[in-house]
Write a structure and sequence with these properties.
Elements: H1 2-8, H2 12-16, H3 31-48, H4 50-53, H5 85-121, H6 123-137, H7 141-152, H8 156-182, H9 186-193, H10 198-234, H11 246-253, H12 262-289, H13 291-301
Length: 302
Amino acid sequence: MASSVIDSAPSRTDRDGMRPSGRDPRRRLPLGLTIGGLILILLGLVAALAPALARRDPLEQDIARRLQPPTREHLLGTDRLGRDLLSRLLHGARVSLVTGGLVVATAVTVGLTLGMISGYYGGHVDFGIQRVVDVVMAFPGILLAIGIMAFIGQGLANLVVAISIVNIPRVIRVARAGVLQTRQMDFVEAARALGASDRTLMVRHILPTILAPIIVQATFTLVYSIRTESTLNFLGLGVPAPDPSWGGLLDDGKSYLQTAPWLIAAPAGAIALAILSLNLLGDGLRDRLDPRQSARVGVTAL
């Protein structure tokens, strides 16, 4: 009798029309997140170990071997001054990743602080901050960065400042939107009723709630930073020569596109790989950290 009851009980597959899974699909990392993260880690290791991996000094010139195609001695060839392209590419990764990392740290710190203040207090404070944000975002980002660099001059520190100014308003908007959605929730009102200060409410109760979109925005800020840094260096407004950078390598090779295409292919491929990995990482983090997206993924995978 017990056997017949068990046999007649509808299985999960019969009820839902879906096959059961032994593992919660929401715990699986998105493929893009995994691939993007691994590529980014690899690029970070390459940048950190550039002096050890580079076979030659990136500034060493050998005019007799200028514009040589890739060989066993020079795996990516040489540039117009006979400098080893692989060594310059490896050291150029440091400029791009360090610049991007500093921009993300600056933009997230300043943008998150101002965005939370703007969204929490509202009124004249919110109005003033948002009007400044509107003015900055009214200009195309790359043109604003070019104008700032033309005004303050070349250098890594100035490059970080210029790109950070362009990216801070985006972080402010994301943080403000999160605070506006969170500040009236029951758990915030309960903490306020218990006498929690504004600082405690923002740091201990609101900040953890809005971190997910901020993390996603940080990855896309890194994408924009690398792209803008390469553009500014390509235009001669970034790190001064002869220090290597990916954008600077593109600038050096543009005159030899037909006679020495490897001068363009190597830095262009490095930039494309870095941007691809960060886009995959950002999309994967967004899918992972968005509860609604995670729920849809879980139902689909069952």
